[in-house]
Write a structure and sequence with these properties.
Layout (H helix, E strand, L loop, with lengths): L3 H6 L3 E5 L4 E3 L7 E7 L2 E6 L5 E7 L4 E2 L2 H5 L6 E4 L3 E7 H10 L1 H27 L2 H14 L12 E2 L3 H8 L3 H13 L4 E3 L2 E3 L1
Antiparallel strand pairs: 1-8, 2-7, 3-6, 3-8, 4-5, 4-7, 9-11, 10-11
Length: about 200
């Protein structure tokens, strides 16, 4: 999202997080802009029974947790390292100044946030009304479309998500995901090779 040069000029710091370490918790006051340099981060919530719901997964070059920086509300979810990760941290005031000085970056954030709103609206509809197979295809297509390494819509995209992560993203049980994925493979909607899903 923001180039390394601009981040360094704005005095961003590159911080290391270990797998399972939290970057912030639901209810925390936002203080930084976060951008992934390496590794993977998930934003999640847990219900009263402890079941996890993953709001999103972010890898190299992607940012997360920006809305509270713009609207002055507390984080609505947790952020946790899925793998060991290195993350750019830029204080909120300096982040907002970067946007003021760089209209193209500001426009990119507007587009990204609009896309995330679309994803949230889509998933609310899917979880409340659609069958498991349909939900899984929608989430796989969303990741394929928004993956930077995917060159064409017709090329096979390797899903870098576990069955458990797919369950947590779609509000399904992992057993349901496993059954639905097998059915989708039988229908030719996806390919399973070495336990990895391709769409």
């Amino acid at each position: 999202m923001i180039s390394k040069d601009i981040l360094l000029e704005a005095e961003a710091v590159l911080k290391e997080y270990k797998r399972g370490e939290q970057l912030f918790k639901e209810g925390d006051t936002p203080r930084y802009y976060y951008q992934v340099y390496s590794g993977e981060i998930k934003m999640n919530n847990h219900n009263d029974d402890g079941k996890e719901y993953i709001q999103g997964i972010f890898d190299s070059g992607k940012s997360f947790g920006e809305p509270p920086l713009f609207a002055d509300f507390k984080y609505p979810a947790n952020a946790e390292a899925i793998t060991d990760a290195r993350i750019w941290l830029l204080p909120k005031d300096k982040f907002l100044k970067v946007l003021e000085k760089n209209p193209l970056i500001h426009h990119k954030f507007t587009s990204t946030l609009a896309l995330r709103l679309y994803y949230k609206a889509m998933m609310v509809s899917e979880i409340s009304t659609q069958e498991p197979e349909h939900r899984i295809l929608r989430i796989l297509d969303y990741f394929k479309k928004n993956n930077q390494n995917t060159t064409t819509a017709s090329s096979l995209y390797k899903i870098e998500l576990t069955r458990q992560q797919l369950a947590d993203l779609t509000g399904l049980r992992v057993e349901t995901v496993i059954r639905a994925v097998k059915k989708l493979e039988q229908k030719g909607e996806l390919l399973i090779k070495d336990r990895k899903i391709y769409r």
